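Notes continue from the previous slide.

Worked example: a multi-chain complex. Inputs as given:
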Amino acid sequence: MKKFMTSDELARDDRFTRSSLPLDFLMAEEVTVEQIETTMTTLLSNPDMLKSMEDEGGAASLLSGGPRLNPEEERAKLTMKTQMHGIFMGEMQALEAAGRSAWDFQDNEELPWEFQLDMCRQTWDEGRHVEIYSALLDHVDCEIGEFNENLFLFEFGCSDDPAERVTGVNRCLEGLALDVFQQTIRFGKAADDETIAQSVDFVSADEVTHVKFGQVWAKALTEGDPERRQKIVNFQRKVDRAFSLGGLRGGSYDGGATEAFLPIAREFRKVAGFSDEEIDEVAGAGPKVTS
Amino acid sequence: MVEQTESSANGVGAYGITRHAQPFPYWDRRRLVGEWDVEQSVQRIVHYKYFEERLSAALGGWGATMPEMDCKNLVARHCYEHAWHADLWRKRLPELREVNEDRSEPPNDAFVRFVDKLTEPFDHDLTMEKLVGIYRVAIPHLLAVYTFHQHVTSDITDSPTVRILGFMLQDDHKQYVEGEMMIQDLAATPELRKRAGAWQLELDLLLGEAGGICGPGTLGGLPKIQKPPHAVLGDELRKRREAARKVAEAASSS
């Protein structure tokens, strides 16, 4: 079996449609509101969701955050379907990324056995998350394949360098998952929906472990090698910028910034081993937004 | 209070200080002497570990190459089970005086060729070959070898290995059934069934060339099985009893 797959080689059944990767947008150091609008339109693709975004004032409203999604609002169900489907696809890509790490680096002499064990453990965990989110999709009346898939998580996370791989997949991708899950848990509680709140709470606990894997291995693989360490930090900044979705991620529930589109899960990240400085860096990783 | 019978007043059926038991219950029939010594056991385990590591990596790698979501998730789950098995072997090695817990070796070049062929399929339309390789060739082989090991090693001196094998066999039995169910469900056409059979045969022949996970003798035994002595009957029995009676009479008269 070949090593080091590209994202377009990921196997899917014919229910899935892929939207193009907005690479330039995700890599940019400066973006305009118009670019955010265009990209979100491409990413969302679902006509109902697009209309909902328009009704809320377009992409500009996402930047200012707007009011926290209220479970009683008209858009709540559609928003949750979109989000659940996006996470479902993200979990599948995480399963694939962790599994490929087990295969791609199995004979890498730099890596001890514990690395492979951790990657295999994560593969199982992500598979369980796929099962959980498929059940949650059913819970919110969403069909698999109802929304487009975007492969940017795998694309950005999966480097051929193992230190970059664990940084991209475990620290950045799984860190993003922590941010999203905290939001979903709060939504589930606000909706008195124990199915959502409890299921995602367990998934979130797993993700903390996966972020820890990233913290431990990124550190171990760059120990005593400042040049490589800097390379990893640069890679991490690049991926965190991409995962800020054009600067839509930021703020914090814990810091009282309740209006952000996607606040940082500061406490979850601390449990996973992030320092305050590292969290601040993630929060500020997005591009500069101009009108 | 339980009333004790005459036969149980002193002996294994008794209670308290009059119970003159062995350090195991009298119904325990485990064997003291097993098939292999410590070094031979280590040699088998490093071969098991090699294969479990390869299986876990391949199952992880295949997840991204399977378009069928149920198969993708099946191999993701089993990926960790084999990594866990490899880790159990890794922890067992130092307990058997092996200083290098990372030792992991194929038995011969033919087994490497078998593993390379088993893990070769990549394309999206080769799910059948991937599943057949694992669930019709690799897992049945592990079931046979691990069961054999569990049966012939000493279940007293080597009981940690016997216990470990129990966990692995439980996982492998489940995997075997789950994998076979998936293969039968996927093999909806005669063409797919032929592909499954042809690939199974190709791999099985390679496995046969290697002699199995431990090379030739993987499932063979050394003649160490403990057997009761042959029957003593007729004249020989009569003479033996007469001799024993004379010894007893001499002892009582003195």
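Summary box: Helices of chain B lie at 38-63, 69-95, 109-118, 127-152, 159-186, 190-210, 235-253. The interface with chain A takes residues 53-54, 56-69, 72-73, 75-77, 79-84, 86-87, 90, 102, 119-122, 124 of chain B (CB under 8 Å).
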